[in-house]
Structures are given as structure tokens and as C-alpha cells.
Design brief:
This protein is α/β, with parallel strands linked by helices and 498 residues long. The protein is 36% helix and 19% strand. It folds into 2 domains: 213 residues, CinA-like (Maf protein); 191 residues, Rossmann fold.
């Protein structure tokens, strides 16, 4: 679905935003832009009054010149280069101008480093953009950094879009910093999601001391500015391409409400199988815990308290979180394949595989379920299936006895024979009777047996933070088994790997 704010009548247009900044006597700073021309500062020169706003405008296109000014960097369109630009330019502004006008001026530095469409049209069109600023004269610094993907097919159109979003970012920083959610929404003013995608945003500094960047990441997806957002167990916002680029990826989708022993055992057992693949290096694997917007909206609207409870529990387990609007697995697969040609694995329970073969989910595709599976498995993707226990009969649903519609049986057998679907046989049978909905019911009912079904770290966090309606009682806590202290969660992975 395209979100279009190009004709929003109750918001100022790009020219009006640039002029409002130029006419604000407090704002004064510098612009440094690499790639796609000086498209942001151009707006401020065009509307008039720029002498009251612009201390300097520059563009260090030559790599040697750029290195001489900002220091050496392996890549020129990356977060580090952007931060080096902001550091350098903002410190120069303060050193040169603070003494003469610091009492009445709120200084800022804007920077972007962009790879717009090249002549052959073979490059990844994306860029980093940021502003470091004082909300008020003499204030401590605040900062906003975003990563954008440019979707226009013409270089000139991409340049135009970069100029507009840069003005939106500056206007938001100066006039909407006290309302960060409105600031995020305004970034797409006078644009639409067919032209620009914002897949990462990070707020920091004194003006945003109360901002939770995980919530802002969620808002990107909720508002349609991106289809996915990612953050680490430490709550740090991650840019997907920098985490996933050329890496094998293993994903577990779930509600994680709460994280249970089954969630961790499923990921552990799938990871062990995934690392046995001939082209997968264990120390390169990125594992992701994914929550879909459909799951978060299961009760209508997103409950931020519930959302933060889930991600705090995932953080306690060291998980990297992916929030996505990709309900269909083939769309998730296409998203991941955008960043890597390495192996992609998805682990799921046998019940989810049954749903995967339900044709009602593919009625919007011309090719129906065949088209969806063609998209899902075209990039050497593999499904790792965790068994489902029937509590009434004590029987396990496995790949070998999983029931699908008779007319789809041969398709299912073909995928199994091609090793696109693989049974996990290294699971821990102690946890087959754990079901997250039942665990949640037990927590809310004050039934302390829920502790048996979650890692110790999760139990401790639920009790300490009173998540999911937990109520403290005088009943002594029973020990809970921990998977976090063993298996893949105990390996020396970087924060972007697990």
C-alpha cells in the first residue's frame, strides 16, 4: 500500500518549511552533502533569506578530499561517514561562532552521504542523512539519523526526493522535536512511499532523552514509511543492510508473548541444522526473532506497553528483533534476499506449516499458492519444522505425517523431497507441552506453573516488571530452566548476530 503525503493540505509544503527555517533568527549552521548534488541546501538558497541560516555549504565529492576532511573510511555511503561529517562540521561551527553569537543562536549541522542512481543503473540507491542541533541557544546537542532507500528510477527524481526529505528532517528537528511521533510522520510530507523508504531512524541527545527508539522503529512500519525495522538486544536501532549484507540468515517468527523455552529450543535446533549446510559458516549466521504487524494488531490497535514487554523479554534472551509488515512468508523471503545471496532459513512449528499450505492466504496472487511457493523457495530458502504435540493423543505432528489438502499433497512431497522442508529431530522433548497462549493464561491467572515453561531470565523480568498482568504473591518462586546460558546464546556472537 502506498502512503501518499504529497498533497497533504494541512501541512506546510517544502518551500514553506525551508522559508520558516530561514526566517527563524535562532537557527544557524552548515550543510555538508556528498552524492546526488547539494539538493537539501538548494531549497534554502531558493526560497530566500538563506544568509540568516547558512554559515557554510560544501560537498567533498572526491574521495581523497573527503578523507582529508573527515578521516578515512572503508565506505563513503555509510553511517560512520555520516557521523564523521556531523562531528567535524558541528565542532567547527561551535569553535568559530559560539563566542560571537552563542548566546542567541541554536547551532546545527546537517549532513548526508548518498548513492543516487548511477549512469548504468546498477547501484543500490540509498543514503544516510542526519542533523545535529541545539534545540535552544546554549543547549546540549541533540541528533537525528535516518537511512533512506530511493525508489525513483530516474536520477533527477531521486535528487528531488533527497532534497524534500532533508528539508522535512530539518523542519522536524527544529519545530517538532517535542513531538517525536509527529516528527516521524512528517518526514514523508510532500512525498510518498513509492519514492522513498525510511528503514532506520535514531534519536539521541538532550531533546530526545525520553524517546524509546524501539517505539520509533515500530512507528516507521506502522506509518508505512518502511515495511520492516530492526533493533538489537540493547535497544539500539539497526540498519538492515548493514546487519544482513552477504550473511546467512535464520529467522524465527512468533508472538513471543512471552518468550518460552520452545522459542529458544526451536531457534537452537534450527541453528544447529542450518550450520550443517555446506555454504553456511556458523560465525557468519545472523539470527532474527520476527514479530509481524498483524500479530501486534491482533487485538485491533497496537498496545505499546505489550509491545515493549515482548521486546524486553527478547532482549533478556539476547535476540535481535525484526518488526515487519510481511505477513506472507514469500514477502519476508524477498525482503531478506534483497540483502544477501547466502542461505536463508525460516524455522516454524508444524502447525504453521499447515497454515502455509492453506490456499485462502494466496487469493490475491494471480498464480495462487504455486506463485507464492515459487517466490518463497526461489532463493535457496529452507524451512525447518519443529514438531507439534497433540496433548489429547500424545502424538507428534512431523514433516512425514503432516496433513495438507489432497490436491496439494504432491506439491508438499515435492518440496520435502527437494529438501526445501526439513524436520528438526534435535529438539528437546521436555518442552513439547509448552504453548505460549497457555503460559500467558497461567501468568494472568496467578498459576505459578508458568515458570516451568520460560527461561530463568524471562521469568525474572516478568516478575520484576509485572508484565502481562503478573501479580506478586507470597508463593515462593520455583527455579526455571535457562536456555540463554547455553546453546547458541552462549557463543561469542556480535550484537548484530543474535
Amino acid at each position: 500500500m502506498c502512503v501518499d503525503r504529497s498533497t497533504t493540505s494541512n501541512r506546510p509544503n517544502t518551500e514553506q518549511k525551508a522559508l520558516a527555517i530561514n526566517l527563524d533568527p535562532r537557527r544557524y549552521g552548515s550543510f555538508a552533502e556528498i552524492g546526488a548534488g547539494q539538493e537539501v541546501v538548494r531549497w534554502f538558497f531558493r526560497v530566500g533569506g538563506a544568509a540568516g541560516t547558512i554559515a557554510k555549504s560544501m560537498s567533498a565529492y572526491d574521495m581523497t578530499v573527503s578523507d582529508a576532511i573527515y578521516g578515512q573510511c572503508e565506505r563513503y555511503v555509510c553511517r560512520k561517514r555520516l557521523e564523521d561529517m556531523l562531528d567535524h562540521e558541528h565542532s567547527l561551527n561551535l569553535a568559530r561562532l559560539k563566542e560571537s553569537r552563542g548566546d542567541t543562536t541554536a547551532f546545527f549541522s546537517f549532513a548526508d552521504t548518498v548513492s543516487a542512481r548511477n549512469f548504468k543503473g546498477t547501484n543500490d540507491c540509498h543514503g544516510w542523512m542526519g542533523v545535529r542541533f541545539q534545540a535552544h541557544p546554549g543547549d546540549q546537542d541533540s541528533q537525528i539519523i535516518i537511512h533512506v532507500r530511493m525508489l525513483d528510477t530516474e536520477n533527477a527524481a531521486q535528487q528531488e526526493a533527497i532534497g524534500i526529505i532533508g528539508v522535512n528532517l530539518l523542519y522536524g528537528a527544529f519545530f517538532l522535536h517535542h513531538e517525536p511521533e509527529m516528527l516521524v510522520e512528517s518526514l514523508l510530507d510532500n512525498l510518498n512511499t513509492r519514492r522513498i523508504e525510511i528503514d532506520m531512524i535514531e534519536f539521541s541527545g538532550i531533546a530526545f532523552r525520553n524517546v524509546d527508539n524501539r517505539v520509533m522503529s515500530l512507528r516507521l512500519v506502522q506509518l508505512g514509511l518502511s515495511n520492516a525495522a530492526m533493533f538489537s538486544a540493547k535497544g539500539e536501532v539497526l540498519q538492515p543492510s548493514e546487519v544482513l549484507y552477504k550473511r546467512p540468515i535464520l529467522v524465527e517468527r512468533g508472538s513471543f508473548r512471552p518468550v518460552t523455552n520452545v522459542n529458544l529450543d526451536m531457534l537452537r535446533s534450527a541453528y544447529e541444522k542450518f550450520c550443517e549446510e555446506p555454504d553456511v559458516e556458523a560465525d557468519q549466521v545472523v539470527t532474527l526473532a520476527e514479530i509481524t504487524m498483524k500479530n501486534l494488531k491482533a487485538n485491533g490497535e497496537i498496545d505499546l506497553k505489550d509491545f515493549l514487554a515482548r521486546v524486553d523479554l527478547m532482549a533478556a534472551c539476547g535476540m535481535t528483533v525484526l518488526i515487519s509488515d510481511y505477513f506472507e512468508y514469500y514477502r519476508l523471503a524477498a525482503y531478506l534476499a534483497r540483502y544477501t545471496k547466502k542461505k536463508i532459513g525460516i524455522t516454524m512449528g508444524a502447525g504453521s506449516v499447515c497454515e502455509l499450505f492453506d490456499e485462502k492466504y494466496y487469493s490475491q496472487l494471480d498464480g495462487g499458492i504455486l506463485e507464492s511457493f515459487g517466490r518463497l523457495f526461489k532463493n535457496d530458502l529452507k524451512l525447518y519444522v519443529y514438531p507439534l504435540l497433540n496433548q489429547a493423543t500424545n502424538e507428534l505432528t512431523l514433516v512425514d505425517n503432516l496433513q495438507v489438502a489432497p490436491e496439494l499433497r504432491k506439491l508438499y512431497e515435492y518440496l520435502v523431497d527437494k529438501h526445501c522442508i526439513e524436520q528438526l529431530d534435535n529438539f528437546d522433548p521436555r518442552h513439547l507441552n509448552t504453548f505460549s497462549r497457555e503460559v500467558l493464561r497461567q501468568i494472568q491467572a496467578g498459576d505459578f506453573s508458568w515458570r516451568e515453561h520460560v527461561p530463568a531470565e524471562v521469568a525474572e523480568t516478568i516478575e520484576r516488571r509485572a508484565f502481562f498482568g503478573y501479580r506478586k504473591t507470597p508463593v515462593e518462586r520455583q527455579p526455571a530452566h535457562s536456555f540463554v546460558s547455553s546453546g547458541i546464546f552462549n557463543q561469542p556472537f556480535s550484537e548484530t548476530q543474535i
